[in-house]
Each structure stands twice: as C-alpha cells, then as structure tokens.
Amino acid sequence: MEWLFAPFEVAFVQRALWGGLLVSCVCALAGTWVVVRGMAFLGDAMAHGMLPGVAVASLLGGNLLLGAAISCAAMAFGVSALGRNRRLSADTGIGLLFVGMLALGVIIVSRSQSFAVDLTGFLFGDVLAVRERDLWYLAVALIVAVTVAVLGHRGFVALAFDPRKAHTLGLRPRLAQVALVGLVTLAIVASFHIVGTLLVFGLLIAPPAAATYWADRIPAVMFVAALLGALSTVVGLIISWHAGTAGGATIAAVAVGLFFLSAIAAGLRDRLRGRGVRYAALAAGAVAVVPLAGCGVGADSRQPAATPHGYVAGAEETSDAQSRLVLADKRTGAIEVLDLITEQVVEAGRAAGVRGIAGDGRFAFIGAADSARIVDSGGWTVDHGDHVHYYRTTARGIGAIVGGRVAGVLSDAAVVAVAFESGTTLLLDRLALENGTVSERGRIAEGSVVPYAEHLLVAVPSGRIEVRVRDGAPVTAVAEPCANPRGRAVTRRGVVFGCADGALVVSHRDGVFTGTKIRYPREVVDADRAVEFTHRPGSATLTAKAGEQGIWTLDVRKRLWTFVSVGLVWAVNTAGEGSALLVLTRDGVLRGLDPESGRETAQIALLEPLAESATPPVIQVDSNRAYVNDAARRKVYEIAYNDNLRLARTFTVGIDPTLMVETGE
To answer: Within 10 Å of residue 541's Cβ, how many Cβ atoms?
Structure first.
C-alpha cells in the first residue's frame, strides 16, 4: 500500500490535498445550484471570463487572485444587467459577454511573450503549488459559501422552481439571483488556482451532476457532490504523483470520469431495481475518502512509513524551484538573502573586506582578502536525472574558510571545490556542509578543479586535464590537451574548460572520460579569448566577455562559437539555446541580442553609467527570469527576458547589493 500513501507524505502534496478538499466543498455548494437551475453555460462563461483580470494582474505584477475576482465580478454584473433586457434572452447576453471577455483576455495575453511562463499555471491550475495562506483563503471562502447557501436556501429553491411564486411569497427572486451568481463567482475564483480557469468548470459541474444520480434532495446532493469532489482530489493526486501528469487537470479528469461511472452505475441500478445499490456505493465512496483525507496530517495509528524518496531532514519539499539571491555589500560587509518566492529579506551576517562572491546552487561563498564566509541560502534543487526535488529552509551563515579571495565554486553531491585566485583549490565535504559543519577534505595546490561523475577533473597549468579520485589521487588523463586553461562550467553535456584555442568539453560515458575540442572560428582573429563563462544552471549554451571587442557564445550541443561585436560590456548571460543574449552595456542599458545575427531585439535602461573603477553589476539567469543588481540605488531588478525585457519586479534591499549570486536552481 506504499504507492497509495507515499504521495501524501510530502508537505506540498498534503497542502494540495487540503486545498482540493476545501475546493470540493465550495464547488459542491455552488455547483449543485448550477446543475439544478441549468446554469452550466453561465458557469463556463464566468470561468473563461476571468482571463482578462488574470492577464492584467500578471502584466502589472499584481495579485492574480484579486484580478480574477474583479474580472469575474464584472462578468457577473454584466450578466445581471443584460438579463434585464427583454429584447435579449439570457443565453444571448451570456454568450456575448463570454466571447467579449475571452477575446479581451486573448488580446491582453498576446501583448506578453512570456504568457506561457507566467500564466499557464493559472489557466490550467497548479494544485501542487498551493501555499498555507491559500488554504486560509479557501477556508474563508468555504465559510462564506456555507453562509450564503444556508441563508439563501429558501430563495434559491423558490427561484429554481417558480420565480413568480417566490415573488408572491416575498422571497425577492432578483436578490436571490444576484446572491446565487455571487455564490457561483466565489466558487470559480476560489477554485481556479487549483484546477485553472479552463478546468474549473469540470470541478464545478461534474461532482454535482454525478451526485444527482444518488440523491434527490438538495442538501443530500451537495453532500454527495462534496464526497465525489474529495474522491476526485485524492485519486487525481495519486495518479498525478505516479504518472507525472498535471495535478489540476488530472483532478478535473477524474471528476468527469466519476460522472460517467455514476451514469453507468445508475443505469444498471435502474435496470436491476436494487434499492440497496446506491447506499452501498455511497458508503464505499465515503470509506475510500475518509482514510485518504487524513493521510499525512494529524495523528496516525499506522506504523511509521519508510523515509520517502528524496527526503531531506529539516527541509520542506516544494513543487517549484526556491530561487534566492545572496547579496553582499563591499562597503559594509553586510550579507543578505532575498527570497524570490516570498520577497522576504533575511540578514546572513557580515564579512570584513568583501571582494568577491561565488555560489554552487545552494551555498554562497563571500570572499575577502584571506578568507571567505559561507552562507546557506536555504533554497536548493536535488537533480536525480529523470526527476528533481526542490527544497527550502531558513537561510543562515555557516562559517568561514581560509585561503584568499574566492574565484569560483563548483560542487556535486559529495564534494565542494572552492577555487582561490592564488590557484589553490580547497575541497570541502558537501554532506557536512549541508549539516552546518565546515569539513575540509584536502587541497590541490595547482589547477582548476571540477567535481564530475564521482571524480575530480583537474586542469593543470601544463594544459593536461587529469582525472582523479575524490582524495586527489590521479587515475587517468584526457587525451585532448587544453593549453593555458582558464574558466570552466558544468553542463548536461559535460564539463567545459576554456582553452587558448577554444574550449574543451569533457564528458563521461561507460566509465570513460573523453575530451572534444571546440576551436574558435578562424575568421575571428582580433577577439580576446573567453576566460570566464556565464550561463543558466545546466544549460549547454555559455556566454563570456571577449575583452573589449564584444562577447562570445558557445553552443556545446552544436559545437559552435559565435562572436558578437558590441564593444566593452559590464555583463553578459543567456537562458540557453535560442534565447536572447542579455548584455549590460557601459551606459547602464540592458540589451537583448539575437544569438545568431547579433541584432538588437529589445532594450531597457536600468542603471546609471558607472565609473571605470566600480564593481561591475552581474546578470543572473534562471529558467524564468533574469536579475540585475543596482548597488547605487539598493535595488535588484527582475527582468522577463522572454517578454521584450519587461521589468517584472523591483526589489529594494537594505544594503548596497554590490555582489550577487543566485541559488535554488
């Protein structure tokens, strides 16, 4: 039974479960009236009518839930207003608003090239990204829905069967209609974060429609609909976990599937005329939901389950990468960690004489003249090849190491290689570091060291790439030389070393290390070589400054160097193959360049022109955004690089963010 309970041992799946259960209850209350009154078209129209509000809120960087609520409320007001027009039928008015709101949403979305990145989760749902505060919102929505359903029950019943008689009895059918539309609006807005605007209709309609096969009275239909919605949530999450499918879509699909199963079962019941069948079915559904709903929360009489795959003690596993920025102030030595998810800033200590910073995806090393402080950013990713795990915990300072100014850091699951500008590399125990202890495994006096494939790749000054075991003992050497090695990067296609005549890519397969040389193009003779690579973590497309002449891009997959003549620049980076080159020029303008032609495609003025002696700002890139630090204004800019370099967010911090490195990816 481990396959049944394993998904619910993870914190974010537990939150998804509770979110789905609360949404099921809200949708059962509103959806029952939608089914009884034949308001399915209205429900579908209102679900799609949220798109303009969600799109506008995303483009403006506002609250998407608020945008959805405003858009849905406008839709409800329009439906009520057009419903009073005697020349138009109700369906005609709803259809006009449906098309109009959907068209408006598509028009707004078409203005944003990053739509696929920003809004997909809100169109199709992201149940696994439910946060604790979302559960509180859903709980409040459920309380409001129960209150409206109870207080308006008589009016809703009368409105459903005879509006004229309702008016005669003083039940105010118009007010009841407004309250009912408001109840439907509440259910749709509360649910769209779970299953998305395009799938919320299924969860609103399918469980109540299926419930009508098993109950006759309105309260009973609501109760059965809530049970079926809960069952859809549990089964959908289990399927999503094991099959790797989208959580919200799977829940909606299971809900629709339960409707068809109910229809088939009810048909068989009517043929057999077995009165006990439906009660047995209801009991079975309740028995299936109750034990699963409590899974992973509260007390549990079962024996403790085995440690789930990917478990990390003391950390919370999440559904998305927990990106953070570690910032350091060269003037004061202050260090801060900016959480890009919650936007909170945490102080992480001080380091006297700060001169540089480097990171390995989780830890940041802030170098001074003869030492470096280590900061655990509290956000990291564990890559198992075919899948990944994301974790978050509290940011903290760990300790210090002695060796000089840090030139770079690379690591794997066991070893952290800290390279100093002196040429020495310090090897640290990664597991000990994760537990908050600085433990040295040794030092390598000369050579650039990269932990790779459970070995160490050491580029010695003579130009040979040596393969060593973790304690530093040599094993073999790569046949292809790398003259005057400077700069290195780890990609999914191997380790890249910068050489005098190009780049050497060292890969590992079947226990054998091989090197492939990618030489500089012959037609480019006046450009300086690449000595320091920048790239998105794991990407096989690298960028580098080419002295004062321009920039280099290296496509490891295509084995191709490309030179772009743009003169002297502050910083350069790229998100990967096909993405624009992000270049910060000396005038403080961030420019997007076509990676093949070098043609400028977009630009945005971010910084004031800097003095020659100033510490250059950097461009950090992840899978969704780019970040540029502005020390003079104490700001960090978040750039949507797929949307014409749109300024998505601006973070104001408490220090001069002279140095910056991103973690969590």
So the answer is: 23
Torsion, Cα 233 234 236 242, to 10 degrees, reads: 150
pLDDT at 268: 85
Residue 194 has pLDDT above 90, yes or no: no
The band of 302, judged by pLDDT with boundaries at 50, 70 and 90, is: very low
- Separation CA 257–CA 183 (nearest Å): 25
Distance in angstroms (rounded) separating the CA atoms of residues 173 and 420: 77
Q: Are the C-beta atoms of 48 and 102 separated by less than 8 Å?
A: yes
The neighbouring-strand residues paired with 541 are 555
CB 138 within 8 A of CB 22: yes
Instruction: Specify the residue for token string 């170098």.
Output: 367
Whole-angstrom CA distances from 246 to 148, 227, 309, 567 are 32, 22, 20, 46
User: Which sign does the torsion angle of CA 171, 174, 179, 180 carry?
Assistant: positive
- Per-residue pLDDT tens over the stretch 490-546: 998 999 999 999 999 999 988 899 999 999 998 776 778 999 999 998 889 999 999
| Burial of 257: CB neighbours in 10 Å, binned 0-12, 13-18, 19+ | middle
The C-alpha atoms of residue 489 and residue 280 are separated, in whole angstroms, by: 62
Mean pLDDT of 325-353: 91
From 577, 589, 573, select the one nearest 625 (Cα to Cα): 573
DSSP state of 381: E
Give the Cα separation of 462 and 446 in Å (integer): 10
Q: How many residues does the chain have?
A: 665
Residue 529 tokens, joined: 């070589």
Q: What percent of the chain has pLDDT over 70?
A: 80
Place of tokens 């900061």: 375
- pLDDT of 119 reads 52
Q: In whole angstroms, what is the distance from residue 516 CA to residue 532 CA? A: 19
Q: What secondary structure does DSSP assign to 310-356, as a single string?
A: T--TT-EEESS---EEEEE-TTT-EEEEEETTT--EEEEEE-TT--E
3-class DSSP state for residue 66?
A: helix
Measured CA to CA, the distance from residue 74 to residue 85 in angstroms comes to 17
d(CA 372, CA 355): 9
For 174, the token pair is 């118009």
Work out whether the CA dihedral 435, 438, 440, 443 comes out positive or negative: positive
Complete DSSP assignment for 424-463: -EEEEEHHHHHTT---EEEEESSSEEEEETTEEEEE-TTS
Give the closest residue to 545 by CA, choosing from 559, 531, 535, 525.
531
CA–CA separation, 516 and 559 (whole Å)? 9
